[in-house]
Amino acid sequence: MNPPTQSSSESPATTKFLVESIIGPKQQYQLVEHLQANSHYDLFRAYDSFLSRHVSLCVFASESKDAADAQLEALASLSHPNILPLLDGFREEDHPVHVVKDIDPFLLSDLINEDTALDGEQINCLVPQLFDALIAFHENKTLHLGISPANISLYCSNDGRCRYTLLNLSFSKAMDEDGCCEDYDSSILQKQFHHVAPEALAVEKVDARADLFSLGASIYTLFSGQPPFDAESPIHLAESHRSDTPKHLGSIRSDIPAPIADWVMNLLAVDPVERPKNAQAALEKFQEALYEADEWKREQISHSQVA
Questions:
Q1: Beta strands in the chain (DSSP E)
Q2: How far is the C-alpha of 218 from the C-alpha of 194, rounded, in Å?
Q3: What fold does the segment set 106-298 form as a domain?
Q4: Quick check: pTM over 0.90?
Q5: Nearest to 68 by CA among 109, 100, 96, 48
Q6: Residue 278 carries which DSSP code?
Q7: Which residues pair with 150 in a beta bridge?
Q8: Which of 32, 44, 51, 214 qualifies as a cystine partner to 147, CB 3.0-4.6 A?
Q9: In what order do the strands lie in the sheet with 162-166?
Q10: Tens digits of residue pLDDT in 102-139
Q11: For the segment 190-204, what is each residue's pLDDT rounded down to a tens digit?
C-alpha cells in the first residue's frame, strides 16, 4: 500500500535524510513530511508500510547518539495516555532514530505564535492531564527536562473533549538514587530557555522540581501570551531570574481565579525549595486551589450583585 501523498518544502537541519527517503531495518518507513528541526534532531512524519499507518520519526544527529540511546532506555517502559508513546528505536547510518506515535498536528506553541492565549476554563482540563503525565515520568525515575509549549500537543474531539499530550522529543534523563540528575546536555535546554528552571540553566544538579518549573512556565505562557521571565538569551534570562519578579498571572488574566493564579506563581519560584516537592504534591495543591477558587467565584458574584 502506498502512503497518502504529502509534501514539504523544508529541509532537514541536522541529518541528510530528505522527504520521500525510505529508512528502517526493513526499509518500512517512508518520510512524507518534515515537521520541525533543531541542532540535535529532525522530526518527520512517516508512513509505516508494514502496519499501514502514519508515525513520527525523531532522527537525531550522529553526535547525539549517546544521549538518544540514554533516552530510549529511560522511556522504553513508560506508558500513559497523556504521554507520546515510544514505539521503537533503531540506527540509520549512525543516526539514532526514535519511532513514536503520529503526533497530533496542533502544538500549543502554535498558540504563542498566533498571539492567542488559552481560555481560562481550559486550565481545569490541562493541569490534571499534564501533571498526571509528569507523575508517570517521575515514577519511572525519569526527568523530562524539555517541557515547553512546543512539547505539548492538543487534540479536541467532535464532542468537545480535549486531550493534552506531553511529547518526549527532548533528551529525557534517568534519575539517580537520590532522584536527581546532573549529567545532562545543557546546550539542548538553552534552545528553549524561556521555560527552563534556573538551576538547570545554571547547569546545577536538578530533580523533579525542575520539571515543575518548566510546566509552570509553560502554563503561564499559554494563559498570559508571554513567558514569565522575558529575555533575549540564556545569559540575560539567568540575570532576570536573579533580579526580576514575573508579573502575577492574576493581574494579566482576571478570569483565572486568584487561588489558581497563585498556584501557578508558586511553580515559578526561582529557589526550587519553595516549589512543591514533586508533581504529586503540585497536583494536590492544584485540587486545593480549585476548591478555594469556587469560594473566590462566589465572592466575585456576591460583590458584583452588591455593586
A1: 22-23, 29-37, 41-48, 53-60, 86-92, 95-101, 106-107, 142-143, 152-156, 162-166, 173-174
A2: 9
A3: Transferase(Phosphotransferase); domain 1 (1.10.510)
A4: no
A5: 96
A6: S
A7: none
A8: 214
A9: 106-107, 152-156, 162-166
A10: 987 688 888 775 566 787 788 889 999 999 999 999 99
A11: 666 788 898 888 888
